[in-house]
Amino acid sequence: MTALATDTRGTTPPAAPARPSLGARITRGLGGPLVRVLLVLVGLFWLVPTIGLLISSLRSPDDMSASGWWTVFTKPSQLTFGSYQKLLENGDITHSLLNTVLITVPATVLVVVIGSLAGYAFAWMEFPGRDWWFLGVVSLLVVPVQVALIPIAELFGKIGLFGTILGVVLFHTGFGLPFAVFLLRNFFAEIPRELLEAARLDGAGELRLFARVVMPLGGPAIASLGIFQFLWVWNDMLVALVFTKSGTQPITVALQTQVRQFGNNIDVLAPGAFISMVIPLAVFFAFQRQFVSGVMAGAVK
After folding, report:
1. How far apart are CA 253 and CA 95, in angstroms?
2. Measured between alpha carbons, how far is 259 from 267 in angstroms, rounded to an integer?
């Protein structure tokens, strides 16, 4: 009995559970249903301009001048596709939409391809002055687009590229490359060296190593870069306004021209603006998984 009592008295009582930290309590509170409802409301509020533009593009000019777009919820008979039919009959708008595709797709592909190759070279290839060259590329990030508009416009005028789609593509490619090289070089540099050395021991050359190892591993970062470049070029108006002429204008400049010429040509502007906006949104949502993976990978590394 004495030994049993001693063992009982000598047993250490269980420790009280530790109180959660303030950060843990805040994180737990942010995951509650009230916060989720609030986030849904914020998202819906953010979508109000887009919904308003969509509904306006489906109303006639008389209805738009008589009342706000929200009245369609009580009078759904206002909805019509007449504005889109008129838009398709407008040759300037449809041609400018084609010009936007011809500008955006090559400018995005060139930046992704050249930026990937240069990023791999700066990350894993040895050549004289590599760090200084990379420092020079990074320093180009601070050069504003507005500073280069007039000098490059004069240069393009002398060599016959001013007012052409090729000139706009080259301008966007040149100004998109510094960020592309900086982003991809830092991402590629985090690839384990042992993996690259193993591929070299198997007989892989630099191009094969880049295509078979680096590109698949860098897919999320490359997708993020492609989305950024696509959105920037598609929504650009300043560069296109300076470097294009009447036959090479993208959709942003064409819509601005419609405002200047017709003033209240809302039955063309509303559907044109919605189409101009919905295409980059569709691209983003189509590649959002790769975009989030690239951002998260960059944050972890």
Report:
1. 12
2. 11
- The answer to whether residues 191 and 214 touch, using CB atoms and an 8 Å cutoff, is yes
Two structure tokens written together for 4? 């049993």
Please name which of 57, 58, 186, 36 lies closest in space to residue 123, comparing C-alpha atoms. 186
> pLDDT digit of tens for each residue in the chain (301 aa)?
444 444 445 555 555 555 666 555 565 656 667 778 888 888 888 888 888 888 888 888 778 777 778 888 888 888 888 788 877 777 788 888 899 999 999 999 999 999 999 998 898 888 888 889 988 888 888 888 888 888 999 999 999 889 899 999 999 999 999 999 998 888 888 888 888 888 778 777 778 888 888 888 888 888 888 888 998 999 888 899 889 888 888 988 888 877 655 556 677 778 888 888 888 888 777 776 665 555 555 444 4
Ramachandran region, residue 189 (left: φ > 0; alpha: ψ -120 to 50; beta: rest): alpha
Please state at what angle helix 130-139 crosses helix 165-188, rounded to 10 degrees. Answer: 130
| DSSP string across 152-194 | HHHHHHHHT-TBSHHHHHHHHHHHHHHHHHHHHHHHHTTS-HH
The Cβ of residue 131 has, within 10 Å, a number of other Cβ atoms equal to 8
